[in-house]
Structures are given as C-alpha cells and as structure tokens.
Amino acid sequence: MAHIIDGKQISQEIRDELKKEVAALAAQGREATLAVIQVGTDPASTVYVNNKKKACAYIGIRSLSYELPEETTEEELLTLIRKLNADDTVNGILVQLPVPGHIREDEIIRTIAPEKDVDGFHPQNVGKLLIGEPGFLPCTPAGVIQLLKRSGIEIAGKHCVVVGRSNIVGKPMAVLMLRENATVTVAHSKTRDLKALCRQADILIVAIGKPRFITAEYVKEGAVVIDVGIHRNEDNKLCGDVLFEEVSPHASAITPVPGGVGPMTIAMLMDNCVESMRNANA
User: Fold this and answer.
1) What is the reported pTM?
2) Which of 51, 77, 211, 227 has its CA 20 to 30 A from that of 262?
3) Known active-site residue 96
4) 239 DSSP β-pair partners
5) Of the residues 6, 116, 117, 119, which is catalytic?
6) What pLDDT shows up at residue 280?
7) Domain containing residue 221: CATH number
C-alpha cells in the first residue's frame, strides 16, 4: 500500500518554522504585512481568504483585509493596488482569484508590484522562475516540491510527467522539477496516448482539472502520484483528479484530497510573505 503523503502535517511543520522566524524578526523590530483583496462574495473565495487570514495570525504576520463589492470597477481595484504598492508598510499583496468577469485578471496581476507579488504570478516573477533567478515562486508548485522533499522522495534523475499546462500549476511545476534535476514531460489535452505516457512516470503530477480522471491504467507500479486537483463529487465530497482508491495500491506514495497539496499552497504563500519581509529588511 502506498505511503500517504500528509500535506496537513508538512504544512504545519513549515508554519511552525515560519512562526519562529517571524518572532525572531519581530524581536528586531521587523514586521510583515499582507494585504488581501477580495472582490465579491464567492463562497469558495471567502473560505480561502479566511484560511489565509488564519495562517497569517498563527505565524505572526499582520493582515489587511479589503472586501470589495461585486460591482467594484477595474479602475477602483487598480487604484487600491497602486496605493498598496506605494505603502512601505505592506510587504505582500494578494488579490483573490477569480475576480468578477468585468475585471481583467491579467491587468490585476501586472499591476501588483513584482516585489509584493506573493502569489508569484507577475510576468517578472515568472521570468525569474524560468531563468533560475531568485523571486517569488507560485505557491502550489512550490508546495509540491516541499511535499516531495520532506517526504524523502528523490527527484533528481527521475522521469516526472506533469499532466496539465496552466500558468498557475502545470508550467511552473515543470520548471521547478527541472530545477530539481528531474527529466520532465508535460502532457495535456492534445497529448496522444496519455495513458502510455503517464505509465512511464516515476513521479506523476496531475493538474488536469477533471475529477477522478487518472485511474490505475495511467500509473506505473511504484510511482509517486501527486494530485493537485480539487472538486466536489456527486455526494458533495471533495475529490481530486486521481481515482485515489484505485490508484493508491499501485503507487509507492500518493497525496490524498483533501489533506495533500491543498494545505501546502497556503503554507508556501506564508513563506513568500516572510520572504518579502526578509527582502524588505535586507
């Protein structure tokens, strides 16, 4: 039976490490502040925002909350972001996505100052990621790397197949695995014979956005399987992109949903906030 990679436990380890670091920096008079902006009242977004606020409170990061009505214009949102960019007391700015349809996400991402872009979405930070310069890493892919490393899973020299090519997970995930000296293949909706390709993977990272899509037929015996997907099934229970019950007997290690990759995303967001604090006070 596969080793179940416990994202809750590993994320808690990271939070505790960050809490100690923030306390040490606070003793030197150095503080971090994260500004969190939510437009509208999407229930899932509200849950995510509240979880981020709780994580800030636990670690010792001050959080500023801006809850804007659904009808907020793009220019009003951009004006707030520019104001926070200019505020030296704010280290990180996060706009909870998705935003309402009349607001361009791309414009929002580009307006956040790169040095305060704790989501790691700004084109400047994406470019730094690609060429290996220091910068904020996208939180979910960075969390996957920590899950693997802290579970003692060797990455260097392994064949990693990433299923999905989004800007938020798939593409940066592939680059981070390359950084760790994996041999990386990126698969997507146009890939021919996806099953055969996935069966070649020593490490299979799935971010395809289709519930319970990956079955045992896609998995090599003894592979490590990382499930980035999150959905609600017909019984309104959380599930991932991987059919966990069928795949886990064939994997050497696997992440569950919930409790796998999810908690790591917020832990790595907090790490980026502390990184902004280190940079600001360097």
Assistant:
1) 0.95
2) 77
3) yes
4) 231
5) 119
6) 62
7) 3.40.50.720
Burial category of 197 from C-beta neighbours within 10 Å (exposed 0-12, middle 13-18, buried 19 and up): middle
CA angle 57, 62, 66 (to 5 degrees): 100
Does 119 qualify as catalytic in the annotation? yes
Could you list the residue range(s) of the whole structural domain that residue 39 is in? 29-113
The active-site residue out of 6, 38, 52, 171 is: 52
65: in domain = yes
Are 251 and 210 contained in the same domain?
yes
Mean predicted lDDT score pLDDT of the chain: 95
Alpha-carbon distance values, 90 to 19, 34, 57, 104 (Å): 18, 6, 16, 23
Is pLDDT of 281 > 60?
no
**Same domain for 69 and 150?**
no
pLDDT at position 234: 85
Apex 255 CA angle, 34 and 175, nearest 5: 65
Among residues 6, 96, 117, 146, which one is catalytic? 96
pLDDT at 282 over 70: no
Instruction: Identify whether residues 177 and 229 lie together within a single domain.
Output: yes
Domain's final residue, options 62, 95, 113: 113
Whether residue 28 lies in the annotated active site: no
pLDDT of residue 236: 86
Summarize pLDDT for 211-265 with one digit per residue, the tens.
Answer: 999 999 999 999 999 999 999 888 889 999 999 999 999 999 999 999 999 999 9
**Residues 153, 253 within the same domain:** yes
